[in-house]
Specification:
Elements (H helix, E strand, L loop, with lengths): L6 H4 L6 E5 L5 E7 L6 E5 L10 H9 L3 E5 L18 H15 L4 E6 L2 H9 L6 E7 L14 H7 L1 H10 L1 H9 L7 H8 L5 H12 L8 H11 L8 E7 L8 H5 L6 E9 L6 H4 L1 H12 L4
Helix pairs in contact: 2-13, 3-4, 5-6, 6-9
């Protein structure tokens, strides 16, 4: 439950949470509310956020009659936070999400993905295609680099040892990402809500590890996992995929939205619906995205 959360979080994030134990002993916390027999909206966050990111969408989904599920990846939110950097990998996060979906026996899922939630969510989906009814892709990519490429200055700063250590120590990954990734200034309490789980060293470590996991070359360890995921897209058959994009994203540029059309997925539409919203559209324009997501989840295209 969320009764142990500070008031500056619980007044916006007052959902029922539960915990799922993974085979390696790490507990994953997740929001799980709504009718047990209702279609599922499964929201998968990225870096450096947690299920708090989805609070506006969770509320909209509940009001529309869906069962809403939003896990916190290991190291984030209310989940356990291992303190060994080697624990965190794309494969591990995918395995954890897959375990959660199986443990809850989720069916008729509309999968909503964002940021690192893209590779993690799609990694689960290609292994559990019978559970997936629809997929909503938002400001994310699963495409491995074909040649060596330069990282963004932000990623480069925190990928190398000095920046990695400084970012972990001072929680700079969370603060800079949430500042640079929104157009609307976050309130002091909203900033605190994102930073609160990072008071534990394992949380700061998990966020920094995600930065290191961004592949800059075909031989990067994450690139191999991404290739495997992309090669399994055909497992999803004719599962409809809707791509929604916030175009003022400093990392996931608008042209990346159209790249999803070149995959083996059944992309039914690409919509640039928030020209002025940045990467964390959940803060900048949740009211713009919610109707598209809910309509698609109801079976409309």
């Amino acid at each position: 439950m969320t009764d142990r959360l500070p008031r500056f979080i619980s007044r916006d994030y007052d959902f029922v949470t539960r915990r799922v134990l993974t085979p390696d002993g790490v507990e994953i916390s997740l929001v799980d509310e709504g009718p047990r027999d209702a279609p599922v909206l499964l929201f998968v966050h990225g870096n450096p956020t947690w299920s708090y990111l989805w609070r506006h969408l969770l509320r909209a989904g509940l009001e529309a009659g869906f069962r809403v599920v939003a896990p916190d990846h290991a190291g984030f939110g209310l989940s356990d936070k291992p303190t060994k950097g080697t624990y965190y990998s794309l494969e591990r996060h995918v395995a954890n999400l897959r375990h959660v979906v199986r443990d809850l026996d989720l069916q008729d899922i509309t999968l909503v993905i964002h940021d690192w939630g893209g590779p993690i969510g799609m990694g689960m989906a290609v292994d559990e295609p019978a559970r997936i009814g629809r997929i909503v892709v938002t400001n994310t990519t699963t495409f491995p680099p074909r040649t060596r490429r330069a990282l963004s200055p932000w990623h480069a700063l925190f990928s190398f040892p000095p920046g990695y250590k400084l970012g972990t120590w001072l929680n700079l990954v969370e603060f800079t990402a949430m500042t640079l990734g929104t157009r609307k200034p976050l309130s002091f309490d909203t900033h605190r809500a994102y930073a609160w789980p990072m008071r534990e060293r394992g949380g700061r470590l998990a966020a920094a590890r995600f930065v290191q996991m961004v592949p800059d070359a075909p031989d990067h360890i994450s690139a191999g996992t991404l290739r495997d995921i992309n090669q399994k897209f055909h497992h999803l058959g004719d599962t409809p995929v809707l791509v929604l994009w916030a175009d003022h994203d400093p990392v996931f540029r608008p042209r990346l939205a159209e790249r999803w059309l070149k995959t083996d997925l059944n992309v039914v539409d690409v919509r640039h619906i928030a020209p002025d919203a940045s990467h964390f559209w959940q803060e900048d324009a949740p009211e713009t995205f919610a109707p598209h997501i809910l309509s698609f989840a109801r079976g409309n295209k």
